[in-house]
Design goal:
380 residues; alpha/beta; Phosphatase 2c, domain 1; 2 domains
């Protein structure tokens, strides 16, 4: 299909001569003798380019250009203005109003062809880029829905535990992951934070999901599970990618928790009766780092005896490292105060209040990292 050019000029001789020149170059030409006619044709004919004389009686070219830019950007409809002199104020005024380029009326044919072709091609490239971005956005929306399906539909229902979670990805695709696995006498809680965001982070989070499901069938000690995950991340992640992770296993018979850390944020135990806060961890590097450095350092397991009223909290660093406009960090300014103030807040209101407090702290409802936390109240 031929590219369509609308030539707007009140001078019949000039307009028709320019039309013949461009027709010989293979363009389809429409003509307008005044500004009103030009605007009508733009709405009806949808040209690919407008060549616009700025000096016309009645509605001049500048007024036409202003009207065009109210509804169409420079990318959507390029406009070349025709001026009497190359160095005239008309050029500056036209460019400020949104003209893409200019042509002196005493134009050289090669310059004319080059500027017309350039304006049309740039517009086409931007249109193609917009279409591809729209396709990509639709695909990301689909990927986001798929990724949400790898997360738990809801918390496990266990008499001794009330559980809730919060998951807010920074982008359409997030790099955080958490999951539960319930057995007759135990509950496993797993949380991970993949380095990076978007598609790479979401891909590695999906790998963790598959590995989590597979390893649960073996019921291995936690340190052996972490070792296997370490190798999985190294084998499947891009160079330099890693994941921090924390695994908690709650024995529902002995009321004891066993935990193993892979470079993740500490497990927090807050007793709702005394208010005491304990931070529990073990030595362990992020998943993918040990094998990457060819050191294969062991992961360790530790334990803690739960008592009635204990609140179990796991989160990713998107929560703790959230910053406000003064570069203050949530962890050092409000985190423990938040836990203390809300010590008797029931679930799931606790998760709702956390998100509200983070938004209030940052002064905006967008974040620079994924937010994930899992919270459980032990009543046994």
């Amino acid at each position: 299909m031929k590219d369509k050019i609308l030539i707007v000029d009140d001078n019949d001789v000039n307009r028709q001569m320019l039309a013949r020149i461009l027709q010989k170059q293979g363009y389809f030409i429409e003509e307008a003798r005044n500004g009103i006619d030009a605007l009508n044709q733009i709405n009806d004919q949808a040209p690919d380019l407008v060549v616009l004389d700025v000096s016309m009686p009645g509605m001049d070219g500048f007024s036409v250009l202003e009207e065009i830019r109210k509804t169409r950007s420079q990318v959507e409809l390029p406009v070349l203005i025709l001026t009497v002199k190359q160095d005239s104020d008309d050029i500056v005024k036209g460019l400020k109003l949104g003209a893409n380029d200019y042509l002196p009326k005493s134009y050289d044919f090669e310059v004319l062809f080059a500027r017309v072709n350039s304006a049309i091609q740039i517009s086409k490239f931007h249109s193609l880029l917009k279409q591809r971005n729209e396709v990509m956005e639709k695909e990301l929306d689909m990927a986001r829905l798929i990724q949400r399906k790898i997360l738990p539909l809801g918390p496990p229902k266990i008499p001794e535990l009330e559980i809730d979670s919060l998951y807010v990805p920074m982008d359409k695709l997030g790099g955080d992951y958490f999951d539960f696995f319930e057995r007759k006498d135990s509950l496993d809680i797993f949380i991970a934070d993949v380095s990076g965001h978007g598609v790479p982070g979401a891909f590695l989070a999906s790998i963790l999901k598959l590995s989590f499901n597979h390893l649960q069938s073996e019921y291995l000690p936690l340190n052996e599970i972490m070792t296997k995950l370490d190798r999985t991340i190294f084998d499947n992640g891009a160079l330099g990618m890693f994941a921090t992770a924390f695994w908690v296993r709650i024995n529902l018979i002995s009321k004891k928790i066993y935990f193993c850390n892979a470079g993740h944020r500490d497990l927090i135990i807050q007793n709702k009766k005394s208010g005491d806060i304990k931070e529990l961890t073990t030595v362990g590097s992020p998943l993918g780092i040990n094998y990457n450095m060819n050191q294969a350092a062991p992961f360790h397991v530790n334990s803690h005896q739960l008592i009635s009223g204990d609140r179990i909290i796991l989160c990713t660093d998107g929560v703790l490292e959230a910053m406000n406009e003064n570069s203050e960090v949530y962890e050092t300014n409000r985190w423990k105060d938040f836990l203390t103030i809300n010590i008797n807040t029931p679930l799931p209101q606790m998760s709702e209040r956390l998100l509200e407090d983070l938004i209030d702290f940052r002064g905006k409802n967008t974040f620079s990292d994924d937010l994930t936390w899992v919270i459980a109240d032990f009543t046994g």
